[in-house]
Amino acid sequence: MPPHRVHRHPAWLSGSVPIPITQSIQLGAVDWLILVLYFTTVVGIGAALKRGMKSSNDFFMSGRNIPSWIAGLAFLSANLGAQEVMGMAASGAKYGMMTSHFYWVGAVPAMVFVGVFMMPFYYGSKARSVPEYLKLRYDEKTRTFNALSFATMTVFSSGISMYAMAKLLNLLLGWNFDVALWASAAIVLAYIFLGGLTSAIYNEVMQFFLIVLGFAPLVFLGLRDAGGWSGLVSRLDLVATGSQNLAGQPYQAGAWVSAWNHMGTPGGNPMGVEWFGMVMGLGFVLSFGYWCTDFLVVQRAMVAKDEQAARRVPLIAAVPKMLFPFLVILPGMIAIALTYKSGQTGFALPVKGNAYDYDMTIPLMLKHYFPTGLLGLGLTALMASFMSGMAGNVTAFNTVWTYDIYQSHIAPSKSDAHYLWMGRMATVFGTVLSILTAYMAQHFNNIMDMLQLVFAFVNAPLFATFLLGMFWKRTTGHGAFYGLLAGTFAAAMHHGLTIPVGAESLFKGGWIGPIMHTYPSEMAQNFWTAIWSWSTCFTVTILISLLTKRLKSDEELRGLVYSLTERHSEGHLPWYQRPIYIGAMILAAVTALNLAFL
User: Fold this and answer.
1) Which pLDDT value is given to residue 349?
2) How many Å apart are CA 190 and CA 443, to the nearest integer?
3) How far apart are CA 106 and CA 460, in angstroms?
4) Is 10 in contact with 359 (CB distance < 8 Å)?
5) If pLDDT is split at 50, 70 and 90, which confidence band does 506 have?
């Protein structure tokens, strides 16, 4: 049996090996019908909404008239891209229940923070994007820095989703890679070009339900094959005791089903990280940095009809979000458990090189467990996750490009019709750039690790900039700008001086010269890169702000800084509709989940 601690990304993702014919899926007529209905529906939604796109506000902000629950599901679904569905299942197999920290320590508390504290600033400022908020709070150079880095990140993320989807269709169905890539891009382009953000949002809601309906039977069938929960736990104990850490010591039984009990030292758990690195790096910096500042998700809340509705959007999304580990992580745990001790159906993860092919968990389980008809639904759910990831990034890109780069620096003072036209053009060339990055992705073999690394470089320092800007009125534009630069530089230095064990290339670190530290895993290195980046940005921003003159008056900062902003009374609302009480209930529920899997 291969050593469990050694993980390599699958060769199909690197494009370095031919398609294994034995893995091709034969779809029945019902499966094809479901797929055709899905693609027809997503384009049809865009066509139906086209007549309502009369202004740039309609196209980019959905007229700010989307109900809370619709925006909440879109807020959640925009994050359900390829990395979420396939990556979390792969992590569930590789790291076990510790993967739930991405949700129960990271995402859910961060979403509560966004809804309770940050959304009043985003919505109240009337900013149309996160970079525009930075201009209002700080200055133009800080906005431009964030707009350029965010636009680059969205194009790259969208391209990765396109590449992964085309490669998966090529692998599982035998479709030509180029045809699959251009076809998936054309479908996303069509429904966003026609219906703008509104089309993306309503498609994301449909994709959310497809993902749930498509993957829930997979969990049931896999769990039944593993002998129920008790059978799964006993198999995962075999995984733990049959695997070794870097010191050559086996993990304790329970290391794959416990979220907290084995985090005293990095060597005690399969993720190779201790509790401080987890809580600070993932729980605080990376998760709060992503959910609080990434315009891809924040945009979905900003289209709500009023501030109260906008605050409820992330809170509504947090409820299903806390249950998603059972939908996307549990299949990975089932897959690795059945690989170590087979169930009645004989499912097992394949081996690639000297490691298991974790990233193929979901596709291979769909193939193994689903009959005709259900297979079409499962495959459609998988495609829906890719499409929602692509669409989310493309809509965020066309908004930031049009408002924060084109209107601000290239063509100011044009008519609204002109910016609506530019938004559609940005959708086209944003999609084309994504296709180009999808082809570039074929030359990398560390795509998933690279995305985590990008978040540590971009989102981690930005979160420090936002925290200080919203809660300390003395923060200056110069402090914010040079703090961001310093935070990004610190991330680069940490990455260049450290390396994860078994790294295959300089891309994973150690490119400066002497290696100062070796991490047990790529994930641990990413967490600490984020910690260094955030801490440096936080410190430098404070120091430079104290040394530079504050240029904005209290009046100019009203609505942008917590201490200068009047809080709207919620006394007229029943307690169960007030964000602070809803947030408290959500945090209590997620605390209970952490305790249940202690």
Assistant:
1) 85
2) 28
3) 13
4) yes
5) low
